[in-house]
Structure formats: C-alpha cells, structure tokens
Amino acid sequence: MNILVVLKQTFDTEEKIVIQNGKISEDGVEFIINPYDEYAVEEAIKLKEEHGGEVTVISIGPDRAETALRTALAMGADKAVLVDDEELFGDEFTTAKVLAAVAKKVGFDIIIGGQMAVDSGAGQGGPRLAEELGINHVSTVVKLELNGTAVRVERDVEGDLEVVETSLPVLITAQQGLNEPRYPSLPGIMKAKKKPLDRLSADDLGLSIEDVKAKTEIVDQSLPPKKQAGRILSGDLAAQASELVQLLRNEAKVI
C-alpha cells in the first residue's frame, strides 16, 4: 500500500506571536509538526504495520521544514519529499496544486493529513487536494478501518459521530482522538538520518508558476486586543444573577 502523509511545519503552540513590520517574526521560534498532522503520521505508520506498504511524508516549505520531515521519518515513515522552491510557496490554492503534482509523481492509495493547521486555522488543505486529484475525501476522522479497497471511517461531527463508507483511493483528514502519536525512539532518530529525502522544484514537478500562483494576498496582520481582566461577582446567588443581567445589558450590551 502506498500511503502519503501531507504535513506542515508550524510554530510551537507555546510560542508567543510577535509581529514586526506587518509580518510574523520567526526569530528564535521553535517549530513543530502541525499537531493534527502528527495524528496523520501515526495513522499512516499503523496502516503500514497492519497492511504493509510504504509511508511517504510530504511538506512544502523552507529548509527548516526538513526537521519536521526527519521527525516523521524517526517515528517510522519510510521516505520524505520536501518542496523547497520558494516560487511554490503560496496560499491554500497553491499548496493544493503543488501537493497534487507531488502525489501524482509519487503515486498513492491513501492520503492522510491533519484536519486543520494550527497556525492559520485553515482546514482547506485536505479537501482542496482531494478535489485536485478527483478522489473522495472524509474530514475530521477519529477511526479508520481498511478491508481490501473498502474504507470505513468514523468522523467527528461537532461532538457526535458519523460513519462513512468509501473506497480507495481516498483522502482523509485526522481529528484529535484518532490515535496517540508515538515518540521517536533513539534508534528511529538514528535511522531517520539515512532515510531518503528528495527535494523538488517547479521544474521537477512540471508546474507553471503562473498556474499555481496564490489567489489571495495578506495585506495586513495584527494581534487581537488584550483580554480584559474578569470580574468576580459577590453576594448570594440571586444578587449575583441580578448583577450579571445588569452587566450584560448595560456594559456588554449583549441582551
């Protein structure tokens, strides 16, 4: 089975966001695998262990993204592809076009990704990629079962579960709860250094820069306003409820 995982390297979720000259500063920042993509890597490795095959992890990004791919290789993926051509960095439209080109070049039976990126909050990557490839996709998956080419998944639907049956080839996006990602072992880390990692450019993928050019543009970025301190109400419950209603009506003006 040819299993592809699309992953993104993101800011560590503990990092403080700093904006300088209208751009997010990366000075001294720690980067990690997008947490939802970690579930995708783990599920791909579990599928390989159960059904055989090969896991290829793919990312688009600068040189530093190799660290995220090496981590996935240390977890148990077999090989990696990094598209580090800056002309192919763009929005979700660009990303889907580029990942589709890589998927066609590498080949696949199933593609797994995270259900959203924690840095942008975007959940478009998986559905857009599936659309580019003309295959089915199922999002926010919390359980995945394969039987030959038959695929049965359970997906999170705002706290409830929906069962979907489909077939390979398919793209799924992982939701928290799908599995518990493993930590790379020391032997795994040592082996990861020698596993193949290909770097691809627009020419390698036969892509025209104009055809994959971003459809959106960031014109400004700003931090949200600081949270105001909360207020603790006092008195008995009836007095607190009365004061709360007054505050919601007169200060917050939400009722």
Give, in spatial order, the strands making up the sheet with the most strands. 11-10-9-12-8-1-6-7-13
Number of strands: 13
Portion of residues in beta strands equals 25-35%
What is the count of DSSP helices, taking H or I runs of 4+ residues?
7
Q: Calculate the terminal CA-CA distance, rounded to whole Å.
A: 57 Å
User: Unreliable segments (pLDDT under 50, ≥5 consecutive)?
Assistant: none
Largest sheet: 9 strands, mixed
> What integer is the average pLDDT?
93
Shape: globular
Pfam family, one: ETF
Subunit structure: Heterodimer of an alpha and a beta subunit.
Function: The electron transfer flavoprotein serves as a specific electron acceptor for other dehydrogenases. It transfers the electrons to the main respiratory chain via ETF-ubiquinone oxidoreductase (ETF dehydrogenase).
Keywords: Electron transport, Transport
